[in-house]
Amino acid sequence: MPGTTTAVILGGGIGRRFGVLTSREQPKALLPLANAPLLSYAVEWVAAAGLPRAIVVVAGEAAAAAVARWVAEEYKGPLKLSVTAVAEECGTATALRCVLDELAGCAQVAVLRRAPSSRPPAPSPAPAATCSATSRWRRCWRGTG
Fold first, then answer.
1. pTM for this one?
2. What's the Cα-to-Cα distance from 91 to each of 15, 94, 112, 139, 143, rounded to whole Å?
């Protein structure tokens, strides 16, 4: 959507560290937390922020297909959601490069790397006057400022 802000939700993949809890049919993004998939919390935050669209990037074709089924069959919210599959071994930067064409013309892009909690984010502390540009970048990257 030209001129709008689009969210990119990095949905992960199978999540092998979760052991038997995940599979190709049950990727990490769809693991239930308080009777709702983990992904639903990130989607709710994006919708609450008033954004019209989100792209969910999922590692692995099978995991992406499972998430796409959830979007088609279960998601009833206001967002226009699309799902993009990337290679299982790709990192964050590569995953974002894979959706560049879908982001063409967007005024802004918001990237959600981890599912937010149900609590609103804490206010950011004011940056110190002696803070270097590098340390400000690190705080922003960690989500603390």
1. 0.74
2. 14, 5, 14, 21, 19
